[in-house]
Amino acid sequence: MESRDGLISVTDDGPGFAAEQLPYVFERYRRGDGRGSLGLGLPIAASIVAAHGGRVDVHSPAALPPATDERPGATVTVRLPRTRSLG
């Protein structure tokens, strides 16, 4: 995407995502933390963003070695084109 894309980043201070979870964070009903929630937020957000020609990425320091017991959080970045060609 071009550098003229709109960009929104949200960072939390939760446990983040382990490296083995990252490939699946956009799959519906898939959770890696065993808390029993449905895991729909990121898949729904990614679907909406994709419908508008954008993309969603997730970065989590917990996925990078060495893993720590700190709460590294995660950053979700949404990129949307400022203008989109309809033709």
Number of H/I helices: 1
CATH architecture annotation name of the domain at 21-80: 2-Layer Sandwich
Poorly predicted regions: none
Largest sheet report: 3 strands, antiparallel
> Beta fraction of the residues?
15-25%
Strand order of the largest sheet: 1-3-2
Q: Gyration radius, to the nearest Å? A: 15 Å
Mean of pLDDT? 81
| End-to-end CA span | 17 Å
| Structural class by SSE content | alpha+beta
What is the chain-wise order of helices and strands?
A: EHEE
Roughly how much helix do the residues carry, as a percent range?
10-25%
The CATH superfamily title of the domain at 21-80: Histidine kinase-like ATPase, C-terminal domain
| Assigned CATH class of the domain at 21-80 | Alpha Beta
